[in-house]
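Weekly sync, protein design subgroup
Attendees: M.S., D.O., the rotation student, P.L. (late)

Item 1: inverse folding check
M.S. brought a backbone from last month's batch and wanted to see whether the design step gives back something sensible before we order anything. D.O. pointed out we never logged the input encoding, so this time it goes straight into the notes. Structure tokens as presented (231 positions):
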């Protein structure tokens, strides 16, 4: 098959030859130098105001609607402030005297209300009423306590012991007796002389199993109601 040739081969070759000797020195071959006429001038970097609007198509801009300094508005409204103040005083509520407390014979006095001697808080409508946030918090605590108690009861129900029925009790007893017979048969088949360590360990293991089975069989036979824990 023909060898694969990329379509961009000539373009890549041209780019490589173009930038081949550009960075041979400490910088690019040609650096754009600013013109001497473009020097930094005073206030050249400060923001400039917007240019003024010029007259467009020979139309003059309308003058500002600001009255001249010689303009004096005509006012025909006159108010009698003396009568107005007198009416306000007559119709207004009289000032209530402030309560003071004198505690020395020289006449030193201070306001009674901010002193703490005047019972103004017990006269409030909300005095002795439980705040709303406390009522809401107590309700939340009560609800959480009920949920916790319900979860505890649920766990106790799950962990409660199960009572074996008479049929299950009989089946378990038969299985234990059958197991005891098998282990007893194996125990009877042991050699008379136990001269090795393995024989002694095997004999002791069978004896322990027989003792445990006998204990379980006696416990089930002596008790009509058997409880099993759900582990």
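Designed sequence read out in the meeting:
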């Amino acid at each position: 098959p023909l060898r694969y040739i990329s379509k961009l081969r000539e373009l890549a070759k041209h780019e490589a030859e173009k930038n081949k000797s550009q960075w041979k020195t400490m910088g690019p071959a040609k650096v754009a130098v600013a013109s001497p006429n473009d020097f930094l001038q005073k206030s050249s970097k400060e923001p400039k105001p917007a240019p003024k609007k010029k007259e467009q198509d020979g139309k003059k801009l309308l003058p500002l609607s600001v009255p001249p300094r010689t303009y004096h508005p005509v006012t025909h409204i006159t108010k009698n402030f003396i009568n107005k103040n007198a009416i306000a005083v007559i119709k207004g509520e009289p000032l209530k005297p402030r309560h003071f407390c004198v505690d020395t014979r020289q006449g030193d006095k201070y306001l009674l209300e901010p002193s703490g001697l005047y019972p103004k808080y017990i006269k409030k409508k909300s005095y002795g009423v439980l705040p709303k946030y406390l009522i809401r918090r107590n309700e939340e605590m009560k609800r959480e306590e009920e949920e916790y108690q319900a979860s505890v009861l649920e766990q106790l129900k799950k962990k409660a012991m199960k009572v074996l029925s008479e049929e299950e009790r009989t089946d378990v007893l038969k299985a234990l007796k059958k197991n005891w017979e098998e282990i007893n048969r194996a125990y009877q088949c042991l050699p008379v002389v136990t001269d090795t360590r393995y024989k002694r360990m095997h004999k002791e293991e069978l004896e322990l199993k027989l003792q445990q089975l006998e204990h379980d069989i006696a416990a089930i036979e002596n008790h009509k109601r058997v409880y099993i824990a759900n582990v």
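Discussion: Residues 88 and 185 are 121 Å apart (CA to CA). The mean pLDDT is 84.
Action: P.L. to compare against the previous round before Friday.
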